[in-house]
Amino acid sequence: MSLTGDDLEDLVDEVFEDLDEHAELVDERLEGIPEGETMPGLEDMRLHDAKEFRLGIVFIDINDFTEYTSDNPEKDVLFMLNVFIPKAMELVREMGGAFEKNTGDGILAYFGAEDDDETVAEDVLIFYALIQILLHCGVNPTLERYDVEPISISAAAALGTAYISRIGIHSLNRRTAVSTTANVASKLEDLAGTNQYYVNQGIYEKSDTEDGLGSMLEEVGGLNGYRWGSDFSGWTSPSRYYEFPNIGLDLYKEATS
């Protein structure tokens, strides 16, 4: 497609034509954002609507995906993605979570909406344990049977307040989480290495650190530029973050022995 000066001007004019009207509509629909009681389906939300939730936001990412795609035939990469991603999505659904998107080499999911913070925190850690079992005891053995290179993953999760909004235009839109919580989860995912599973301070504070899976969390360090808490409970700055051990294979062996 060639683009002349007149073409560019016409394109800009078309995009800008109803910008003020569009902004007024967005402002109207974001007036007094309500608290959500259940995670809405995409079809149940109007464009630009938003609801406020307390959520556990989880990123799962396939490690070294660029190298994996370079070192393996395209058909093997496609086979791997079609084995792992749908089963990971199914696990989210079976645990009552909501799936936002497939990022190509990973997924983004939400837990919560209907539960208290303690339940959300424990659910995230249970999901960590189950996704490890799925990977080590299901997906990778399957890949090996088909002579496809196995994978490793990393994960990051954060607990906090988030707005869920339907963002886009009528033909192109999706449900999106907008919050510092989502930013923290994304930042922790960037920091997580091979087979590392990080959580923010919110999940640590609300999990059962005495007898539950929270007792397995080990502090890693501080996340500069972010803080966790409230003006009433006291801010912690920088926010601390923690690692959940890669114990899925051991749990599976113990459960099946």
From TrEMBL:
<dbReference type="GO" id="GO:0009190">
    <property type="term" value="P:cyclic nucleotide biosynthetic process"/>
</dbReference>
<protein>
    <recommendedName>
        <fullName>Guanylate cyclase domain-containing protein</fullName>
    </recommendedName>
</protein>
<feature type="domain" description="Guanylate cyclase">
    <location>
        <begin position="56"/>
        <end position="189"/>
    </location>
</feature>
<dbReference type="GO" id="GO:0035556">
    <property type="term" value="P:intracellular signal transduction"/>
</dbReference>
<dbReference type="InterPro" id="IPR029787">
    <property type="entry name" value="Nucleotide_cyclase"/>
</dbReference>
<dbReference type="InterPro" id="IPR001054">
    <property type="entry name" value="A/G_cyclase"/>
</dbReference>
